[in-house]
Amino acid sequence: DLAGCGEGRKRLPDGGPGQSHADKFSTIDEPLENQWSYHAVANVIRGHSLLRSFAGVDGDRVALTGISWGGYLTCIVAGVDDRFAMAMPVYGCGFLRENSVWKVGEFGKMTAAQSDKWHRLWDPSRYIGSAKMPVMFLNGTNDFAYPMDSYAKTCALVRSEKNYSIQLNMKHGHLFEFPEFFLFADQYIRGGKPMPVVARPVIDGGKVRTSVKSETKLIEAKLHYTTAPHEQNRSRAWKTIELKVDGHHAQGAAPPSEATVWYIAIRDERKAIISSELIVQ
Asked: Measuring CA to CA, which residue among 36, 51, 127, 136 is closest to residue 82?
């Protein structure tokens, strides 16, 4: 990704905005066509149209994914281009001015009007709720940029089919070491065996339970929780409660009442981790 640069990383005359934080946030009072998100979203949609125009491409089996800022863009594009067979944002989410790595450094420099304008135009929460394709969410518990509270609110907006793989302390980067990325894609693009789906957990009498829809054998189940505030997302410690797997069900001790966020993670025979939705308290 040359970000509008050519040979020797020199700016091209028609290269569009760069990818600095200033290009993404500080241009909010400029015309729309000068702003990074405008160009980035338009480029994804135009690239998709170009891809579908090729004779060797099955337009019904094109997926959308991106990592970090690419995950941010995936959340937006999923809501405005319904031609994709599935969408898979990795790390990215919305509600960035409420809690994210940019809350203080970027939104803190804006006036209230500028913050409202950026949120209205460019926050993924304004778009992802319109997604019609299945959306698969991948993130780590301690991501430095996209914290669990903002992430959970973003996931809740999706009304189409959705699934989750929230992983304990997953690194942030362009990583392809985890099988879930490919298994989610294969499910919708190649007709692969579906990933398990974990139902919303239920707490009753100090116990937690959930059911799992799965065509693969379930190997283990764990409940992960933290009691630290969401503002400490990157550094806060998580604790784990082992759950008992019984066929397509998992149960065990409930998280403490002071937990600020928790979820259940299931591992199947392919060593893939599938999660319940995040429960934010």
From this structure: 127
pTM of the entire predicted model: 0.94
Tell whether domain 1-195 is in CATH 3.20.20.140. no
144-149-155 Cα angle (round to 5) = 105
* Sequential DSSP letters for 101-133: TTTTTTGGGS-HHHHHHHHHHH-GGGTGGG--S
The closest alpha carbon to 209, from 273, 276, 278, 268, belongs to 276
Can you tell me the distance from the alpha carbon of 137 to that of 117, in angstroms, rounded to the nearest whole number?
26
Superfamily for the 196-281 domain:
SOR catalytic domain (2.60.40.730)
pLDDT tens figures, 216-252: 999 999 999 999 999 999 999 999 999 999 999 999 9
- Asked if 144 and 176 touch (Cβ cutoff 8 Å), the reply is no
Residue 231: half-sphere exposure toward Cβ, Cα within 13 Å: 2
Which residue is listed with tokens 């929780």? 225
| The predicted structure's pLDDT at residue 9 | 82
Q: What is the mean pLDDT of the segment spanning 191-205?
A: 97
Give the start-to-end residue ranges of the domains of the chain: 1-195, 196-281
